[in-house]
Amino acid sequence: MPFVVTENCINCKHTKCVDVCPANCFYEGPNFLVIHPDECIDCALCQPECSVGAILEERSVPRNQQIFIRLNAELAEIWPNISKSRPPPPDAEEWDGVPNKLKLLER
User: Fold this and answer.
1) What is the CATH architecture of 3-83?
2) N- to C-terminal Cα separation, the chain
């Protein structure tokens, strides 16, 4: 079962998770990362690297975050692959835990 990047990544976009991914299955948008569900090997190495707790196993995604399962699959097909970490946005810490960020997702 693949892992899914959920809402709390929006505008936080820490990328330490990509450094540990042996499958190179992360894709990067302007203010969000996604995991390609067909490339994820379910190794779980990325989950503890996410400092904002945005990476969840698909079966553990809460009901109010289920849209992110589809968004990860959809956006992984159009966004570029990322395999090395980059610095987070300067205001990333301010966005950690802010609710209802879906409307801020930049495609």
Assistant:
1) 2-Layer Sandwich (3.30)
2) 25
